[in-house]
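Researcher: Here's a chain I'd like modeled. Treat it as a single chain, no partners, no ligands.
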Amino acid sequence: MPARTPEECDALFAEYAGAGDLDRLVALYEPHGTLVQQDGVAATGPAAIRDALGGLVAMKPTLRMSVSRVVHAGEDLAVLYNEWSMTAKAPDGTPVEMQGKAMEIVRRQADGTWRFAIDDPWARG
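Model: Modeled as a single isolated chain. Structure tokens:
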């Protein structure tokens, strides 16, 4: 299911990551979309985003996303400000807890759905 609103991009990200659905997770990004990783390296395009998100999906995370603000630039572009938290398990079974404040640019596609153009989960600390 594709996102029908800007905010739904984040809700679907949490759903697909938790379900281990890497294909649907990667499909939330535009073909030339970019995901900024924790080390600041940008993963651009489906193959790089798949590689970057594979470890997350393997941890079977529970993500909580809270979009605190949406700023629209016309009808087809928006910036999302998102506070998120995650619980998961590392490969050795150790509990993992993380949180951050994201900034995401999403764009309406020709079919009316929304996708991430730039996703930076670490942008605001």
